[in-house]
Design goal:
This protein is of the alpha/beta class. Helix content is about 35%, strand content about 15%. It has 16 helices and 16 strands. An eight-stranded parallel beta sheet has the order 8-9-10-11-12-13-14-15. Strands 5-4-1-6 form a four-stranded mixed beta sheet, with no helix packed on it. It is globular and about 70 Å long. Bound molecules: N-(iminomethyl)-L-glutamic acid and fe (iii) ion.
Length: about 450
């Protein structure tokens, strides 16, 4: 039987937690087919792997404080015979595989109940996303199912999706709420995300985003501004005060959903609560959302399917990250975001799956990478940068993670079952998975030699 994706993870954390004193422990990673550090320019075109820090014959030394379970950091990178290589307590043979910074899925809605498979068939027969939503389906369909679901059921289905993402190389995942649209259910979704964070501690870093402004719920259909007031005065303050508060607030700026003036009210509350800002913009209609979000100080703008030259130019001269979601373009039969133009102009780019039941029913981050190249016209090194450095920037560098393997950086890395990065893209629809082996070995320290 093939191993499950989850069993294939680089899973160093449980082992160090079992070692019982406070001096640092060092582990040597050797025998990599290639090491991709991710170190290189943050913006602008790239054409070659060395521009994202590809090294052959490189070794890495990790360090962690014994007994603290505080996680691993990169202590050293270099040639095997370099005189400054620290002494190591254990060695792991990577068997010719590729070591890279872990991929970041910068945009998911993966905690939800039910599915919308029937709506998918309707869309493929010609119904539009907006028509289905206007008839009470779409996001509101999932809201009804999510309101009725138990916390445990939401955690269980979310955990399956996270395990799949991890098997495709993800180590850092953003998850948005937004299928509750009332205080109780938005809090339930936030609690589910917190639960998943604890369940995957050390294996995945999970960043929560509050998105009660994902749609106007049916009970506020005739008073959308009243719902925005509820979001601002009640739902977001409650979420910010939760035991596991979100890092960001997101709003769906779109014709038929929320306009720029409503989004401005939400952004002001996010700022007052000390939360970062993200925005869904230009998915179907250009409402000037990119320029608005940059002015509002958003960390990222996401989707961008219909973004034009003015939005591209504005992003190029800003610190706001452009998050591309190529699976959504395919699943909605819509155009790809202008990732090529954004990169050429000098904007920072990140990628995500958008995993959700309506517009991208997939956790396949590796396929999203392939489509960013084939549909989004990024070069392969640019796509890798987007899921490493770009993703870290889009999530505000959570827990010091920069998307790069460099001395001092936390070790959120992955080992992919492939000898070098070309094959990440070449085998269409069959990208390499994260590698089986380190988890079992390190959990009992049995395979450490
Ligand atoms: O990112 N655009 C809004 N939210 C999701 C779709 C959510 C859904 O259809 O359930 C998106 O495409
Ligand atoms: Fe989305």
């Amino acid at each position: 039987m093939p191993a499950t994706p989850l069993a294939r993870m680089v899973w160093l954390y449980p082992w160090v937690a079992t070692v019982a004193d406070t001096t640092p422990v060092h582990v040597l990673l050797h025998g990599a087919g290639a090491v991709l550090s991710g170190v290189g320019a943050e913006r602008g075109p790239l054409a070659r792997w060395d521009e994202v820090g590809l090294h052959a014959g490189c070794q890495v030394v990790l360090a962690a404080d014994k007994g603290t379970a505080s996680g691993w950091r990169v202590a050293w990178l270099g040639a095997p015979d370099a005189p400054d290589r620290p002494a190591c307590d254990a060695r792991i043979d990577l068997g010719g595989r590729l070591l890279t910074p872990g991929w970041t899925d910068a945009h998911t809605h993966l905690v939800f109940a039910g599915d919308r498979a029937a709506e998918f068939t309707q869309r493929m027969a010609g119904a539009s996303y907006a028509e289905i939503a206007a008839a009470g389906g779409g996001i509101l369909h999932t809201v009804r199912q999510t309101r009725a679901a138990s916390l445990d059921a939401l955690v269980a289905s979310g955990a399956k999706r996270l395990a799949e993402l991890a098997g495709w190389g993800a180590r850092v995942v953003e998850i948005k709420t937004g299928y509750g649209l009332d205080r109780a259910t938005e809090m339930k979704l936030l609690a589910a995300i917190g639960n998943l964070r604890r369940q995957f501690a050390g294996r995945l870093q999970i960043v929560a985003t509050a998105m009660p402004a994902h749609a106007v719920p049916p009970e506020w259909k005739h008073d959308p501004d009243g719902y925005v007031a509820l979001v601002c005065d009640d739902i977001l303050p409650a979420m910010a005060a939760a035991a596991d508060p979100p890092a960001f607030v997101d709003v769906f700026v779109e014709r038929g959903w929320f306009d720029v003036s409503q989004a401005t009210r939400i952004a002001a509350v996010a700022r007052a609560l000390g939360l970062g800002l993200k925005a869904h913009v230009d998915e179907f209609a250009d409402l000037g959302g990119v320029q608005w979000a940059i002015e509002a100080g958003a960390t990222s703008v996401e989707h961008l399917l219909v973004s034009g030259p003015a939005a591209v130019a504005a992003l190029a001269s800003s610190a706001t990250v452009a998050v591309g979601l190529p699976l959504t373009s395919v699943f909605l039969r819509e155009p790809f975001a202008p990732l090529r133009a954004l990169t050429d102009a000098g904007a920072m780019v990140a990628l995500g799956t958008d995993c959700n039941p309506g517009s991208a029913m997939s956790c396949n981050l590796a396929l999203a990478l392939q489509l960013a190249v084939l549909g989004g016209r990024l070069s392969a090194p640019e796509a890798v940068r987007a899921v490493t450095r770009g993703g870290a920037a889009a999530l505000g560098e959570p827990r010091g993670w920069t998307g790069r393997l460099e001395p001092g950086a936390p070790f959120w890395a992955t080992v992919l079952d492939v000898d070098g990065p070309d094959r990440l893209f070449y085998e269409l629809g069959a990208p390499p998975r994260a590698w089986l082996g380190l988890d079992a070995g390190l959990a009992g320290a049995g395979q450490l030699t």
